[in-house]
Amino acid sequence: MSARSRGTELDLSWISKIQVNHPAVLRRAEQIQARRTVKKEWQAAWLLKAVTFIDLTTLSGDDTSSNIQRLCYKAKYPIREDLLKALNMHDKGITTAAVCVYPARVCDAVQALKAAGCSIPVASVATGFPAGQTHLKTRLEEIRLAVEDGATEIDVVINRSLVLTGQWEGSDFIKTSTGKETVNATFPVAIVMLRAIRDFFWKTGNKIGFKPAGGIRSAKDSLAWLSLVKEELGDEWLKPELFRIGASTLLSDIERQIYHHVTGRYAAYHDLPMS
Amino acid sequence: MAATRAAPHAREIFTSLEYGPVPESPTCALAWLDTQDRCLGHYVNGKWLKPEHRNSVPCQNPITGENLASCLQGQAEDVAAAVEAARTAFKSWSAQPGVVRGQHLTRLAKVIQKHQRLLWTLESLVTGRVVREVRDGDVQLAQQLLHYHAIQASTQEEALAGWEPMGVIGLILPPTFSFLEMMWRICPALAVGCTVVALVPPASPTPLLLAQLAGELGSFPGILNVISGPASLGPILASQPAIQKVAFCGALEGGLRLLIQESVWDEFMRRLQERMQRLRSGPGLDGAVDMGTRGAAACDLAQRFVHEAQSQGAQVFQAGDVPPKRPFYPPTLVSNLPPASPCAQAEVPWPVVVASPFRTAKEALAMANGTPRGGSASVWSERLGQALELGYGLRMGTVWINAHGLRDPSVPTGGCKESGCSWHGGPDGLYEYLRPSGTPTRVSCLSKNMNYDTFGLAVPPTLPAGPEIGPSPAPPYGLFVGGRFQAPGARSSRPIQDASGNLHGYVAEGGAKDIRGAVEAAHQAAPGWAGQSPGARAGLLWALAAALERRKSTLASRLERQGVELKAAEAEVELSARRLRAWGAQAQAQGHTLQVSGLRGPVLRLREPLGVLAVVCPDEWPLLAFVSLLAPALACGNTVVMVPSAACPLLALEVCQDMATLFPAGLANVVTGDQDHLTRCLALHQDVQALWYFGSAQ
């Protein structure tokens, strides 16, 4: 991670002045996919870039060391070698941005990545994921243990009761939601968050990162997310240090699109390695 | 991005994450042009019409200048042929039950849907507009308009009973017309049963394609006819006897004026400039650009404007990813333009935006209302009360609050002041093409020896013509202006004769100065009158009706002297009183309406008075016509300047005596005199909002 935000004094008057023009946000959200499409080589390049933003995630009740190992391997080799060669991108070291797992699986993930010779960070969800309704003491202990096990990034679930009563916390990244709600990452929500990030940057000079998670499954969606960040915040934010996409099945859809671009054909399910 | 650079590989794009072109192929448009051998004619009565010996004009691609096709310059005979076809088609089209017309319009909408790619590709190719705008905006809205009006047509018999379609409508399109504006006019006209002849500038194939799609539906070939020709054919079209109404179509929207409150100026400019930097400009057929081009002429216009603004001391900010060559012009923000400079008054060309600061809402209103343009505006504020206040105060056809440019077929659009006086869309828009059933066909009265310079200029002198014989007391002498009887500026009078040729009386000879005074008085009274509640207005009209009845015998005897029988005279007086009361009731009934449409958020339709109306009354029915024209104007909150019947203005002057006591000063003003001369004065006065004319053929 690049230089951390220095933070700033909490100024509640900023928060009270915030206004959101809801219908206008909805209108802009509707237009996003239509406004900026990319095709052909541009699409292939953008998709590969999108891969580098993915926090490859597995948060299931039946996670064990074997599927974690598979996941970590996929994180190191997200796209089939021959496809990368065809695009002359095989030597760029394309990997996903991180691997995101439950705290209990952090050890397995760290081991698997070491075995694969990969230096990407392990991110752990913590603090009573996904509801966040546990004691502060256990939540802090969770974080400590995950970090001891080797996690270098933590996805914190904020205490929503504090939010609803107006008591705020700071962070390096803001994430749309845990990904386990009924409605997760939607464009209207994202627009508001991105504008907030921009305003914060204009006021304090600190850059805060953004991570949409939940419901991003298709390659087309990921392109829309990339162009949204590019339009609202600019190219500076299009780096893994400031932008992550929390996804799991997205990667296979991207791989299929790249397969199509390179070969001109649609891959069968068995043509591409499972993750 | 320059076209000459070789396309970058994925490797470079991976680092730069630039956008690439998303070109839409123009092949289908070119293929369609090929079906006509790249040589387009007119489309009349369901068939292509290519008369010989016509000049042709090339239709060019605005970016490359390449010739796409050639279009004809029509001539008068072509216009006549089209009008004849439309007239014949009108007979069968208007006789159809509304449901049949509705179904036909729905079929047309479906055909557009099937060929929408061709339509948007052609429009984007020829005009340079961004394909995304045409595809997602214009073409979709065009289909919605057709569907909406199809439904309106099918309920026409019940909803609009007592109204019938006017006839053949002539539509004149300016050189930079918008496809959508054209549809806004064609759809209601066709829906209610009129047929259309459209005169389009040459080098515009899209209306011809539309006409072809309509014609190929088969059933009613002549309902939409398109002639391409120069603007000089306009008067010829208007003077065709079968044409009942001429509609002008608006041009594409130009640049914008932004009025920004000083306290948010810096923040706003920063955000705007940030957003401008993200804009992309390029060929219209590129799916990933925000702006296209409107041709070399528009580009030059914008450049001239910006240079002039700079020379007058304005600051100019330009940004965006724009190809550096003509005819592309970058989005431009002009600020610090002195308000008194010529650029501040001129229309802002596309793609320029002029930003000016203001301090209070009152100042903003004054600035916004201080231009002759009155099309549409948007107000952005988080304070609802303030936003609504500005919305009420703006003299614009449409005001959006916290949004801009939202359009829906059921919401009427129109303008104020120089932006036009007709309304389209919604149920009200249909009335543009309707008239009460049974009205005789309007005969075109464009007289051949009309000389606008000399009309009504000279006033024939009047000389004493014998003793006045009449019932006493005679009405007060003078012009009724500002609530009292005043002597005319010209200090002369004209005789009024009765049915037997004897002198009935003298009335004042009003002139240009008197008109000016009358209009001033009307304007002074206008805000107060418009602010009155509908109930108060109704009350005044009823009071006048009662006064007329009290004066019945005098009025009846004056009418008798003009040759009307006593019984009929009394009946006329009673009818006049009844009409006043009816309009009074109408005044109370009308109000603002809240409408729900496809847009997010409610639509408030405000019925506002126009301002000052001038009315020139006909010779016949000196009392009834006067009252019948006065009442509706007042009922709706306008103030009036009336020129009464030339044959006998004395009846009007009798009514003035009652108005002197009942009405606020300046509400109704009556100026007698030479009708042609007064008409000229009123027509030339720039501050009269409307003129109702029932005078001579000239």
From TrEMBL, chain A:
Domain of life: Eukaryota
Keywords, alphabetical: Lyase, Schiff base
InterPro entries: Aldolase_TIM (IPR013785), DeoC (IPR011343), DeoC/FbaB/LacD_aldolase (IPR002915)
TM spans (from-to): none
Catalytic residues (positions): K175 (schiff-base intermediate with acetaldehyde), K211 (proton donor/acceptor)
Record pathway: Carbohydrate degradation; 2-deoxy-D-ribose 1-phosphate degradation; D-glyceraldehyde 3-phosphate and acetaldehyde from 2-deoxy-alpha-D-ribose 1-phosphate: step 2/2
Alphabetical list of Gene3D superfamilies matching this protein: Aldolase class I
GO cellular component terms, semicolon-separated: cytoplasm
Coiled-coil intervals: none
GO molecular function, one term: deoxyribose-phosphate aldolase activity
Reactions catalysed according to its record: 2-deoxy-D-ribose 5-phosphate = D-glyceraldehyde 3-phosphate + acetaldehyde
GO biological process: carbohydrate catabolic process; deoxyribonucleotide catabolic process; deoxyribose phosphate catabolic process
Annotated EC: 4.1.2.4
SUPFAM superfamilies linked: Aldolase
Family classification: Belongs to the DeoC/FbaB aldolase family. DeoC type 2 subfamily.
Family matches, as PANTHER family: DEOXYRIBOSE-PHOSPHATE ALDOLASE (PTHR10889:SF3)
Identification of the protein by name: deoxyribose-phosphate aldolase
Organism field: Saimiri boliviensis boliviensis
Upper taxonomic lineage: Eukaryota, Metazoa, Chordata, Craniata, Vertebrata
UniProtKB/TrEMBL annotation, chain B:
Record-linked SUPFAM superfamilies: ALDH-like
Domain Aldehyde dehydrogenase: 48-251, 257-435, 496-697
GO molecular function terms noted in the UniProt entry: oxidoreductase activity, acting on the aldehyde or oxo group of donors, NAD or NADP as acceptor
Name of the protein: Aldehyde dehydrogenase 16 family member A1
Provenance organism: Saimiri boliviensis boliviensis (Bolivian squirrel monkey)
